[in-house]
């Protein structure tokens, strides 16, 4: 796609028209003009351009109160594509997706303990191969690359400021990608991307929305009036590093008693190991065959479902800590919906129920009364859909308020 094309795409009327076709199509030119309060000629020329570029196509005819029946227009999500890259602390997933965030092709690779520059080298190597694997005549139909990474990410600069586990410090990922591939690139924090994706493609179409993930670590993405809360350096939403105990454990972030140290999977895991080592009976030992490496969240949840006392005690503790922290967020941000995701949340309805009770008991009545609290809806592709959402919203201005 040429530079000049982006400018056209970003033109307000054009994206308004494209959005209307996408959300309300099939729709006629005359209805587009009415609904957007635009002149028929403005609509006609924008539509002509959108058809020429393949974003929109004509189909059938609509009903008419007399005279010639109007031709209907529909959004064409498959004529262009994007590349989405989801980096976690353990794997990198590369995908080709259409403009409705549908995954067309994907591959996942282990990071296998790589850190710092080695992570980037590996990523570029994988990306080279992935791009080379696409049919070359379609290169101009690529609208961009969108990358999500855990950690402190400045999306405006496209820089990964800080990721402890991968040892990434001030990596200018956007510049590296744009120079290498000549394709416009977006970089965003993974949690931020997911909250936007839940809003745009998931079950939670609310402009004031908070997403919390509980798994290897704890994170959050906060959407306020349909704007992602980034903060100055992209560090807003470091939910796992809010302090819950002033005399608690020292954390690598510099704080003490961080929530992460109490309820992330790593914290739960070490509590399980300690319990086993001190001779406390638990089904987890049996389910893992006595192999500490096989103790993973799914084993914990299996023990929980079979009524294991240790698993249940730990789950209750997680609910208490997380409930308290969530009530803080509710009282701070007054969201319409709050969503829980991550390995510890999925397949753990007991945890959700306990937190729901906690919220009901402790959040301010006016803030909790209409609050929707539920499980994340996007499944395993959430980070890829998140990456796509970031790009689509920015490039096409896909409006969230319609
Ligand atoms: Zn911390």
Strand and helix layout:
Elements: H1 3-10, H2 12-24, E1 27-28, H3 29-36, H4 40-52, E2 56-61, E3 71-75, E4 81-87, E5 91-97, E6 103-110, H5 117-132, E7 142-149, E8 152-154, E9 159-163, E10 168-171, H6 173-181, E11 185-189, H7 190-200, E12 209-214, E13 218-224, E14 227-228, H8 260-263, H9 265-277, H10 283-287, H11 297-305, H12 309-333, E15 337-341, H13 349-362, H14 365-368, E16 372-375, H15 382-396
Parallel strand pairs: 4-7, 7-11, 12-15, 15-16
Antiparallel strand pairs: 1-3, 2-3, 4-5, 5-6, 8-9, 9-10, 12-13, 13-14
The site of zinc ion has 6 residues, from loops.
Could you give a short description of this structure?
Helix content is 42%, strand content 21%. By secondary structure, it is of the alpha/beta class.
CATH fold node name of the largest domain = Nucleotidyltransferase, domain 5
Radius of gyration in whole Å, from Cα? 24 Å
What would CATH call the architecture of the largest domain? 2-Layer Sandwich
CATH class of the largest domain: Alpha Beta
* Distinct ligand kinds: zinc ion
Biggest sheet: strand arrangement: 6-5-4-7-11
Q: What would the average pLDDT be, to the nearest integer?
A: 92
Percent range for β-strand residues: 15-25%
Report the uncertain regions. Answer: none
Question: Which bin fits the share of residues in helices?
Answer: 40-55%
Report the principal-axis shape: globular
- Number of domain units: 3
Distance between the termini: 27 Å
What is the helix tally?
Answer: 15
What is the number of E strands? 16
- Name the CATH homologous superfamily of the largest domain: ATPase, nucleotide binding domain
Biggest sheet statistics: 5 strands, mixed
């Amino acid at each position: 796609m040429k530079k000049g094309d982006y400018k056209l795409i970003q033109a307000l009327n054009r994206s308004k028209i494209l959005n209307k076709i996408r959300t309300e199509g099939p729709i006629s030119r005359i209805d587009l003009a009415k609904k957007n309060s635009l002149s028929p000629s403005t609509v006609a020329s924008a539509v002509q351009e959108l058809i020429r570029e393949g974003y929109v196509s004509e189909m059938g005819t609509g009903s008419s109160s007399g005279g010639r029946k109007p031709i209907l227009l529909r959004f064409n999500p498959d004529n262009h594509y994007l590349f989405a890259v989801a980096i976690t602390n353990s794997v990198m997933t590369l995908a080709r997706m259409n403009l409705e965030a549908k995954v067309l092709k994907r591959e996942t690779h282990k990071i296998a303990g790589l850190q710092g520059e080695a992570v980037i080298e590996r990523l570029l190597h994988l990306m080279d191969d992935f791009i080379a694997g696409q049919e070359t005549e379609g290169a101009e139909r690529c609208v961009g690359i969108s990358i999500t990474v855990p950690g402190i990410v400045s999306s405006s600069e496209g820089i990964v400021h800080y990721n402890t586990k991968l040892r990434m410090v001030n990596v200018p990922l956007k510049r590296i990608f744009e120079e290498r591939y000549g394709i416009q690139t977006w970089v965003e924090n993974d949690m931020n991307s997911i909250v936007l994706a839940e809003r745009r493609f998931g079950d939670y179409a609310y402009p004031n929305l908070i997403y919390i993930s509980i798994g290897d670590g704890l994170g959050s993405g906060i959407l306020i009036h349909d704007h992602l809360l980034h903060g100055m350096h992209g560090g807003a939403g470091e939910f796992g590093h809010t302090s819950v105990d002033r005399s608690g454990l020292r954390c690598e972030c510099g704080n003490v008693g961080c929530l992460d140290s109490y309820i992330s999977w790593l914290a739960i895991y070490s509590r399980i190991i300690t319990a086993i080592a001190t001779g406390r009976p638990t089904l987890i030992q049996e389910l893992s065959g006595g192999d500490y490496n096989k103790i993973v969240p799914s084993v914990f949840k299996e023990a929980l479902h079979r009524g294991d006392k240790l698993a249940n005690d730990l789950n209750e503790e997680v609910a208490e800590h997380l409930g308290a922290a969530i009530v803080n967020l509710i009282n701070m941000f007054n969201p319409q919906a709050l969503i829980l995701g991550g390995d510890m949340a999925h397949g753990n309805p007991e945890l959700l129920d306990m937190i729901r009770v906690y919220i009901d008991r402790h959040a301010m009545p006016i803030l909790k009364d209409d609050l929707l609290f539920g499980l994340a809806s996007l499944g395993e592709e959430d980070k890829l859909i998140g990456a796509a959402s970031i790009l689509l919203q920015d490039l096409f201005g896909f409006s969230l308020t319609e």
